[in-house]
Design a protein that fits this description.
Blueprint lengths: L7 E4 L12 H9 L6 E3 L7 H10 L4 E6 L5 H12 L6 E8 L9 H17 L5 E7 H6 L2 H4 L4 E4 L13 H15 L5 E7 L14 H14 L4 E4 L29
Parallel strand pairs: 1-2, 1-8, 2-3, 3-4, 4-5, 5-6, 6-7, 7-8
Length: about 260
């Protein structure tokens, strides 16, 4: 066990602009546009996405980084993952329990740790022996090392864009430095950067300028800094998301592959 995942991974969300669930056929169409990645990260179990993505990714020999979005429903969400896997656990590299829940104030550290333990026990009983982690921001992970101590490896989201002091071509160097800080805070554990990217549109954040050219520069910089253990964010523009004062009008525009085919 442990983080190492060779090659690059990509995050994906199966929602239409109106936040409705994409169909099985839509998701399959989206995956036809994805190549060159060894693993797909998803965030929840709604929309039957675990089963659908396992099928779509499996046809392209990609692993899946599965997710439990609402830790207050951890047991029912784990059961959906168990049902989707149907005994074939080889394709699931990691199950994440929560995403940035401590950073955004949704959950206490203790609640997340308890949910990780509960999920791990339930998954183990169903025959899963892979990684179980929680994902949070690198800031929250460093401040609360209990999160990574309870995880099989440290799983941290890190976007150079939000720092404001980093240009696109320096994104890789910045994110690698934060990954090293996370590993140190977590007692030397392997760290996977579970989200990192750059928006193609939006408002400038000091030195961080969103543009198509800078998105390409940032992704190239990230790929130069990491040969493994990084999930690039995200596959397609997510028009179902809403901006808030801290997102610089960029929430829709992180898609590395542009607009989704579906």
């Amino acid at each position: 066990m442990g983080a190492p995942f060779e090659g690059y991974s990509l995050s994906y969300s199966p929602y239409n602009t109106d936040q409705s669930c994409k169909s099985h056929d839509q998701i399959t169409t989206d995956f036809d546009a994805i190549s060159g990645y060894g693993m797909i990260r998803i965030y929840g179990t709604d929309c039957n996405q675990t089963a659908t993505v396992l099928s779509a990714a499996g046809s392209k020999n990609m692993k899946v980084f599965a997710g439990i979005y609402d830790i207050t429903q951890v047991n029912s969400e784990v059961q959906q993952i168990i049902d989707a896997a149907n005994g074939n656990w080889n394709q699931i590299h990691t199950v994440a329990v929560g995403n940035e829940g401590v950073n955004n104030g949704a959950y206490s550290v203790a609640a997340v740790v308890a949910a990780i333990d509960s999920a791990r026990n339930q998954l183990k009983a169903a025959g899963y022996t892979g990684n179980v982690v929680t994902v949070d921001t690198f800031v929250a992970m460093i401040a609360n090392p209990e999160l990574c101590q309870a995880s099989d490896y440290a799983a941290a989201n890190c976007h150079a864009f939000f720092d404001g002091g980093v240009t696109a071509d320096e994104a890789g160097k910045f994110v690698l430095a934060q990954a090293q800080r996370v590993s140190e805070a977590c007692g030397g554990k392997d760290t996977m950067i579970t989200e990192s990217g750059w928006p193609s549109n939006g408002e400038t954040n000091n030195l961080a300028v969103p543009s198509p050219e800078n998105q390409v520069a940032a992704i190239n910089s990230l790929k130069a800094a990491f040969t493994n253990n990084i999930v690039l964010f995200s596959a397609f523009n997510d028009y179902w998301k809403h901006d808030n004062p801290g997102t610089f009008g960029a929430e829709h525009y992180w898609g590395i592959l542009g607009n989704a085919p579906s």
